[in-house]
Amino acid sequence: MEAAAGAGCGSGPPLLLSEGEQQCYSELFARCTGAASGGPGSGPPEAARAAPGAATAAAGPVADLFRASQLPAETLHQITELCGAKRVGYFGPTQFYIALKLIAAAQSGLPVRIESIKCELPLPRFMISKTDSDIRFGNSAELHGTKAPIPYLISEKNTFKRMDDEDKQQETQSPTMSPLASPPSSPPHYQRVPLSHGYSKLRSSMEQMHPAPYEARQPLVQPEGPSSGNQGTKPHRHQASLIRSFSVEREPQDNSNYPDEPWRITEEQREYYVNQFRSLQPDPSSFISGSVAKNFFTKSKLSIPELSYIWELSDADCDGALTLPEFCAAFHLIVARKNGYPLPEGLPPTLQPEYLQAAFPKPKRECALFDSYSESMPANQQPHDLNRMEKLSIKDGADFPVSTQDLTGDDKQALKSTMDEAVPKDTSEDPATPKDSNSLKARPRSRSYSSTSIEEAMKRGEDPPTPPPRPQKTHSRASSLDLNKVFQPSVPATKSGLLPPPPALPPRPCPSQSEQASEAELHPQLNRAPSQAAESSPTKKDTPYSQPPSKPIRRKLRPENQATENQEPSTTVGGSVSVATMKPHPTVQKQSSKQKKAIQTAIRKNKEANAVLARLNSELQQQLKEVHQERIALENQLEQLRPVTVL
Amino acid sequence: MAVCVAVIAKENYPLYIRSVPTENELKFHYMVHTSLDVVDEKISAMGKALVDQRELYLGLLYPTEDYKVYGYVTNSKVKFVMVVDSSNTALRDNEIRSMFRKLHNSYTDVMCNPFYNPGDRIQSRQRVEGQVSSLNWTVSLCRAFDSMVTSMMIQVC
């Protein structure tokens, strides 16, 4: 049940409201959120969220409304439980509407169940008392008032272990505490204690505080900053609830007084955006690159043209990267869009980067640089605001810079006076001003035209690939493959595949002569080298020696060898380059069986050497292939990286 | 006052072309198309010299009886072609240059949008009035670019 209700703001079945119901409910909701001239429209200041689903009904008026429905308190408790307000801790639109439907159900005599709201119901009846209107004006103070009688803190919310608990307990003791003194915490929680008790106190406190809603709200905003950190998961869920709740109810937001209310970012949202920013880019004062942002925003499943449009709106300086305020603006637009709000023609003033930077200075854990910057901003911001927005929204616009900066009272007065004179803002004028401002900003960046493509290439491409690791200097140069090393047991094999050379073979004199890069020549040289080795041995062994190292040559030699087997190898093989052809054979036959054995051992060893060299050869071949491939790959990359401007 | 502005991609297909809505807009399209040859010729004439040294503004490509066609090419071989009315008190060269510069700036802004794939048409579709809930409406992809071109067609900037 509760799950369904909670899922009502989650992924539950959509709440179907008829036309009349929608009308009525939105009206009631608006009343409860208090579209008063004072606060920005919803009860608790930190719930002054402009985003559609963010407006929450303060528990005070809600409770009063519920009581006006003349249902027993027990039923009301049930209803509030069911609608999920207890779960999420506040009356969002979803919860409110579900609650209203449940009230209607209860008034019609149906049991208070979620299923009962699925059927057609008459509108809930409320005995409107004029206290309702009173309640409306005490929005700012309601925050504390509502918190006061709420003894139990939604415990599951306070996993963050902030000071909220203590604050709330303090507040319970002193419900009429001045809002200036009591730091706010999470949005008003629905209370379980009898409604009447707390709200009478509420009302009195509200009325007291009404005269000073602004000052009340302003310091509120600031202390909320630190405490909004604990809203980490809440805004997340909140966002989720936003998205789903407004897929359910597509009420046009109460635009009467605050036409750009959807475009204002609340503290919670701001915090959430900042966290998301940080997850993408750890340094809050630098930017997110275009591609990173693209990937991130694509996850929102909006269409590409819309995302492109949002980007166009939010990337004010058109640099292809998003700073933190730009990112918040973009995120906010995406959230709004997902909630069904049409995208504005121009960037609303509350989403302008300067505004955002001024309105929401970074929480104290951010770098001080930014704080100093944001402090200097409002000084510029105010005249800027006054120039651009001579409408009602100035009130709201100025609130935030005022609230967060140490402005003099004079400034506040001046702003308030303009607020009072302001008329409802016409959003259609928005496009003119942002465009003007954009063009007036007069592209101070120095465009180097050639940089565009490079930047793009760089943005798109990765870093130039690190050059491939140089192959081990085993064979690239002539000296590296030193047959000395190959055949000397003292030197470790340069290649892992090499076996220790056969110890019997004497060191090769000047084997480096035989070194060439191409292994094609290895064969004759290898042939030569062992053949040189064969010099020292009995001459007759030359021919057999000459065979093993070089297979291709062996074939040639074999017939010759067989033919000339009985001949003796010449002693001057070292001079003979024509290894493939006849070797001068020894003329003397001094063989004996002992020599035969020696020959055989030599043959064996040569075969081993041959095998080793053959393996070496194949490995070198392999390496050559790889190097070729690398070269081709590098050439391709070079081709790509080269500026496109090839004539 | 440009009567036609076109952005041609490197491969010589149009990314964006827009004319003052008069009769026979096809004529302008044709003029732009023929001007591509002249552009290529000028580019190659500038020669094998390093691209950086090449001037981006190409100047008057060719005049016709009623119109003059100016060209501009970027470093990534994207060409801007502008057709202006000859009957205007002759626009000075630097005015044309400044118009091209603005066009280039706007084009770069479109490029900066990560959701724009280079090589796509620079489209500015009209918003389709639909229900708020439905995501049926299309968004302008390059409003700023479009508005810049519009302003160029209205007045010399």
Structure characterization notes:
The complex is a heterodimer of chains A (647) and B (157). Among the domains of chain A are: 13-33 and 55-129, Recoverin, domain 1, CATH 1.10.238.10; 267-359, Orthogonal Bundle (Recoverin, domain 1); 614-642. Helices cover 53% and strands 1% of the residues of chain A. Chain A has helices at 2-8, 19-33, 59-68, 73-83, 85-88, 93-107, 131-137, 139-147, 164-173, 195-209, 213-227, 233-248, 267-280, 290-298, 304-314, 324-338, 353-359, 368-388, 393-404, 409-421, 432-440, 449-460, 483-487, 522-536, 542-546, 551-563, 593-641, and strands spanning 288-289, 321-322. A two-stranded antiparallel sheet of chain A has the order 1-2. Residues 1-13, 35-54, 129-258, 363-453, 490-498, 510-527 and 529-586 of chain A have low confidence and may be disordered. Chain B has one domain (2-155): Beta-Lactamase, CATH 3.30.450.70. Chain B has 3 helices and 5 strands, in the order ββαβββαα. Chain B has helices spanning 25-46, 93-112, 143-154; strands at 2-8, 14-19, 57-63, 67-73, 79-85. In chain B, α2 packs antiparallel against α3. Chain B is globular. The chains are: A mainly alpha (647), B alpha+beta (157). The A-B interface holds A 247, 250, 252, 290-291, 293-294, 302-309, 311-312, 315, 318-320, 340-343, 435, 438, 443, 447, 449-450, 452-453, 456, 643-645, 647 and B 10, 43-44, 47-48, 51-52, 56, 74-77, 104-105, 108-109, 111-116, 118, 125, 132-133, 135, 137-144, 147.
